[in-house]
Amino acid sequence: MSEEQKGGDDDQIPTITIPQDEYEWTKYGQKLIKGIGNKYRSYFRCKKKDCGAKKKVEWAPSNPSTVRVLYEGNHNHQCARIDSDEVDEDAMIQANQYDLATQIFGSRN
DNA sequence: CGTCTTTGACCGGCGC
DNA sequence: GCGCCGGTCAAAGACG
């Protein structure tokens, strides 16, 4: 029931909804990995130049709602807080662990 | 105009 | 030795 997921004739994978975090990411690749049950894996990299942090997102073609986010490396700068306030930095600052996100996020459409 | 995103192709490493 | 997979880069197109 999403604007993209129009129950029509295409069963392709539209722009999957990815849970945003406090950092900025740039998608630099997407591949279908069958080594893990035929899943889609997206590769994100920190926008910052001195930031060697990387992010990998994988989801099942049939379960675009179940997105597995893998954070790799650590940021060299402070969080790029995309929102305004909120967000417990104490618990979010740790960008070095894999997180299992299961929420829909209407990103850019 | 600038910026960002997407896709394809290429390469390296590893396994058998 | 060869094949396969994963991972990254580049370019083009589209949009604000």
From TrEMBL:
Q: Highest taxon of the source?
A: Eukaryota
Major localization class: nucleus
What region holds the WRKY domain? 14-80
**A single cellular component GO annotation:** nucleus
Transcription regulation among keywords: yes
Name the keywords, alphabetized: DNA-binding, Nucleus, Transcription, Transcription regulation
SUPFAM superfamilies on file? WRKY DNA-binding domain
- UniProt entry tagged with the keyword Lyase: no
Q: Name one GO molecular function term.
A: sequence-specific DNA binding
What subcellular compartments does it reside in?
Nucleus
- Per its UniProt record, what PROSITE patterns does this chain match? WRKY
PANTHER family annotated for this entry?
Answer: OS03G0657400 PROTEIN, WRKY TRANSCRIPTION FACTOR PROTEIN 1-RELATED
Q: What is the name attached to this protein's record?
A: WRKY domain-containing protein
